[in-house]
Amino acid sequence: MPSSKTKHCLAFEHHDHRRCQSQLLSAARELCHSRNIRLTERREQVLQILLQSHQPMGAYEILGQLNRNPEASNIAPPIVYRALEFLLELGLVHRIECKNAFIGCVHPGHASTAQFLICKGCEKVAELDNPTTSLQQEASQVGFMIDHSVVEITGLCAECQAND
Amino acid sequence: MPSSKTKHCLAFEHHDHRRCQSQLLSAARELCHSRNIRLTERREQVLQILLQSHQPMGAYEILGQLNRNPEASNIAPPIVYRALEFLLELGLVHRIECKNAFIGCVHPGHASTAQFLICKGCEKVAELDNPTTSLQQEASQVGFMIDHSVVEITGLCAECQAND
DNA sequence: ATAAGTTACGTTATAATATAACATTATGCC
DNA sequence: GGCATAATGTTATATTATAACGTAACTTAT
Prior knowledge:
The structure is a homodimer.
Chain A: H1 17-35, H2 41-53, H3 59-68, H4 77-90, E1 93-96, E2 101-104, E3 113-119, E4 125-128, H5 134-141, E5 145-156, H6 158-162
Parallel strand pairs in A: 3-5
Antiparallel strand pairs in A: 1-2, 3-4
The first copy, chain A, binds a DNA duplex through helix 4.
């Protein structure tokens, strides 16, 4: 899974990545503190790895990052999956279903709904931020109680179309 | 994966299942014929299994069904995955990403877009039929060229809410 | 402060899902 | 028939995920 590729695509072209990361991390800490929930070191490590990458990562890729650290090596899959489960529950992280991968949430607050544009060219993923879609409204009207909803739109971003 | 559970939920309550199946199968045959594409026996077998179930099935579950047939047993995963790939491409089958499972399409024709209501209670899945969502329009307007889009709304159907 | 209860983490093994690579058979076309 | 292509078959293995059980850390009540 290439992670440092052609940075030429999708919504987050010009932004201060370090600042964005640290803001999201602070927000996560505050969220957990306010809810009296423990953002432990492990959980924070996993969140940081995802926020740094800013792109979807597989669980084993995250695991690799954790084990890159020479001290405290040899971490096993369940640890990553448990941290992810925690972060997903809080909406700090989303799962990109069509890639079996995970990505840090850029708009914490909408835990139960997310929409993504997924470029097949540069493999970048942009999170959109629509509070509620017409489909969700429709579902509710039919009496379906929504727990979680996912929209994944795959295709080619403008840049990648141009580069063909 | 329970497949014959509490049939009490979601959109397709009252319908003639056998008829629905055979209609979809005919439609598939016609589609392939008109496009001069081969709906081989294997591919048709897989399609039939999915249409019969009318619910999402894992690839290995399908495999199990194929191997249930005493003659011509011992079929291996790639065969199923290849048939699925073919059927997905044509939009005769959809992939339920959040379950890593596959389901026969009930509205062939919209190959590149599908929406599902997925009940956590009875595990049934209903396919909706909205041609285009506002999100897709939005994506297009941003210059994103959509290849495929997936909407998966998970929750509790009306029946399952009542049965709590 | 300590014992009891709970939550998080660590570890081992294994299950479930998916694909790579290559051999064989069938089909379409000249 | 002979050739090219497409589909299937086969073996092995990669990738993703979880079960089950043990240990450590934190929380709370006494």
